[in-house]
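Q: How would the structure tokens look for this protein?
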Amino acid sequence: MPIQHPEEIRKILGDVRTIALVGASEKSHRPSHEVMAYLQGRGYRVIPVNPGLAGQTLLGETVYPDLASVPGPVDMADLFLAPERTGPVIDAAIARNIPVIWLQIGVINHEGAERAEAAGARVVMDRCPKQEIPRLGIPPVAA
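A: Here is the predicted structure in token form.
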């Protein structure tokens, strides 16, 4: 069952430091771009993932083609994808042992969430950290 309780979401967003944002866009009016900029402004390191932009720089970070290519540890995978495209990305997050998989508003994949939870990941689904952070009064990440 994906996490819905405010205290659990608060803990996740308080513990996370590095986020791989899958479906990152270079277009500033797109929600994925806005959320990436917002999270960076709150002190998180956000690494963009988008095969079409791989190798480019987005908001000061190198874009990677997939989760497997992102160097170093990742605390959370934030998925801005159509629900039918999330299964392989969830599996890639499981393979990398990413501890939190976050599916954005409207991104629902119950089967993928079950696989992730069975592998030990925490899953948040149909929510947005840009909305949850102010709603829950989460302070900026300490440098």
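The chain has a mean pLDDT of 97.

The helical segments are 6-15, 31-41, 86-95, 110-118, 129-136.

Upvote if useful.
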